[in-house]
Amino acid sequence: MELIVVLTILAILAALLIPALTGYIRKAKEKAIITEATDVWKASQAALSECYALYPESFTDPAPSKPPCRFATYIDDEKVSNLGRVTNAALNALQQNPNDQTEVNTSSRRISRQVLDYLDSTKKSDARYLFTAPSGKNTWNTTCNAFLGSNPGSREVLLQIFHTADGRVVAINFGKDGYMVTIIPGKKTTCVYNGTSLNSIG
């Protein structure tokens, strides 16, 4: 009888503690991913500042019929236009082949090279992050799991950077382990499991 009482008490304690422990683990995971995303935001802004200082023409001139800063997104239901965009596609192309010449003089490719360098991800073999680019999938208006699949590698991430024509980051999405972090300067950073990245227009 005493054993049954002890087992019952243990079962009750487990029922109370497991949800609390699960919540603690989730919050710790969110905090770690936000910290990573903040580091990526800093690297992105540093890359943009450097590229704009050295090659301001690449933000406007390379293809007048298809200018680099031709995109838009919505932030707090307000459309923000004339933005440049860096996504996994450009980052992946340069990880696969550092000498890739596609759009070589555009701001997107110049920024991508610097972002990879700052994140110690230039060489695919020992990259801190792998910027995979699944065929037929976009980094915008998607969840981390929809883009990377339900079982991505530990280094696989989604990155989307929106920037102005004068070299300022206005928003990034950083997706990893199913979480989507959105950083917009001046606003609260969000981290949502299975959250959706910002949409891109243009």
| Helix percent band | 25-40%
Strand order of the largest sheet: 1-2-3-4-5-6
Number of strands: 6
Low-confidence stretches: none
Class per helix and strand makeup: alpha+beta
Distance between the termini: 71 Å
In N-to-C order, the SSE pattern is HEEHHHEEEE
- What is the radius of gyration? 21 Å
How is the biggest beta sheet arranged? 6 strands, antiparallel
Number of helices in the DSSP assignment: 4
Instruction: Give the oligomeric state.
Output: single chain
* Portion in strands: 15-25%
Rounded mean pLDDT is 89
Name the overall outline: elongated
Explain the layout of strands and helices.
Blueprint: H1 2-54, E1 71-75, E2 78-86, H2 88-96, H3 107-118, H4 144-148, E3 158-163, E4 169-176, E5 179-183, E6 190-193
Structure notes:
With 202 residues, the chain is an alpha+beta fold. Helix content is 39%, strand content 18%. The chain is built from 4 helices and 6 strands. It has helices spanning 2-54, 88-96, 107-118, 144-148, and strands at residues 71-75, 78-86, 158-163, 169-176, 179-183, 190-193. A 6-stranded antiparallel sheet has the order 1-2-3-4-5-6.
